[in-house]
Amino acid sequence: MKAIVWMAVNRLEVREVPRPRPGPGEVLVRVSHVGICGTDLHIWRGEHPRAKPPLIMGHEFSGTVAELGPGVAGVAIGQPVVVYPVVGCGECEVCLEHGEHICPRLGIFGIDWDGAMAEYVKVPACRLHLLPAGADMVVASLIEPVAVGLHTLNRSAFRAGATATVIGAGPVGLCVALCARQAGAKQVLISDVSEYRLGVARQLGLVTVDARQPQALAEAVRAATEGAGAEFVFEATGIPKAAEGMEHLVRVAGVLVIVGVFPHPIPLDLRSVAFRELRLVGIRMYTQVEFDRAIELVTTRTLAVRPLISDVYPLARGVEAFERAAAGTDSVKVLIAAG
């Protein structure tokens, strides 16, 4: 089968590799579409601490069941599915009390094992989540980032009627903003430096702020909240420059949520956090319950996420797809069609 293989830092190749065979309790999935995530770009650049070449990346994907391993029941060949890509140990105190998505020994398909940037991927049957018949398999590949948005809202204890500010109009930032609006936000502001991404946000009906203009976001938040600040601020870039002063966008007793993954520690005014009793919340992955809710929101079109898809490349042009996604200024979500 064909696969996009990360061979070394900044080196990807479309190669012929052996088709995997499912073992006991496993399923072979014929991949339909897979999204290029920011994590995949970090792996490509050699910036991920766990990923090791050679590796087939890809953890945001849709597909159909192609083959069942011994002992697998309750799923049929041809069934459309998405895959919950998170694997915790299931035994430690963290898993049992808080969930496997933050297990200290967490593993993720496409990072710790081969993922879905291939014609086929082998996964445990217990990770399958069934899609309704006739589901749009292109849009279904966005279920994973929608699950991130849902987990973000749940962890923040977001409430209807609140004002939300999202820093970064990339795929995750837009999913957070859409989930906040769906949860009953009074107003959602979203900022970015890319005119293309701001255009997509406007197409989705969001209030946009051009972050290229100095102090534009702070001024927009003040104007929208009569100077009080936003109840909830979501940092979704992981870019130190974009996050500067984010704690000052939050109103007294508000919530600052860190969604983006930063490459190194950044300055934060902890005195302001303490004196104004802000709540600081971290985000990592999502639960299976939230993954199921994301399936519902996407497949029923409750969240209109199709505008997030900028380009769809065939598997044979996978390297070009990565270059397109890495440019970042004129795309949101770049997909690879494997099927």
Reading off the top of the CATH hierarchy, the class of the largest domain is best stated as: Alpha Beta
Mean pLDDT: 96
Question: What is the 3D shape?
Answer: globular
- Tally of distinct domains: 2
Sheet with most strands = 7 strands, mixed
Structural class: alpha/beta
Query: What string, H for helix and E for strand, traces the elements in order?
Result: EEEHEEEEHEEEHHEHEHEHEHEHEHEHE
Number of strands: 18
Instruction: Give helix % range.
Output: 25-40%
CATH topology of the largest domain: Quinone Oxidoreductase, Chain A, domain 1
Give the N-terminus to C-terminus distance in angstroms. Answer: 11 Å
Tell me the CATH architecture of the largest domain.
Alpha-Beta Complex
Note the topology:
Layout: E1 2-8, E2 11-16, E3 26-35, H1 38-44, E4 55-56, E5 60-68, E6 80-83, E7 86-87, H2 93-97, E8 107-108, E9 120-124, E10 128-130, H3 137-140, H4 143-156, E11 163-167, H5 171-182, E12 187-192, H6 195-203, E13 207-210, H7 216-224, E14 230-235, H8 240-243, E15 250-258, H9 270-275, E16 279-282, H10 288-299, E17 309-314, H11 318-327, E18 333-337
Parallel strand pairs: 11-12, 11-14, 12-13, 14-15, 15-16, 17-18
Antiparallel strand pairs: 1-2, 1-4, 3-5, 3-9, 3-18, 5-6, 6-10, 7-8
Helix pairs in contact: 4-5, 4-10
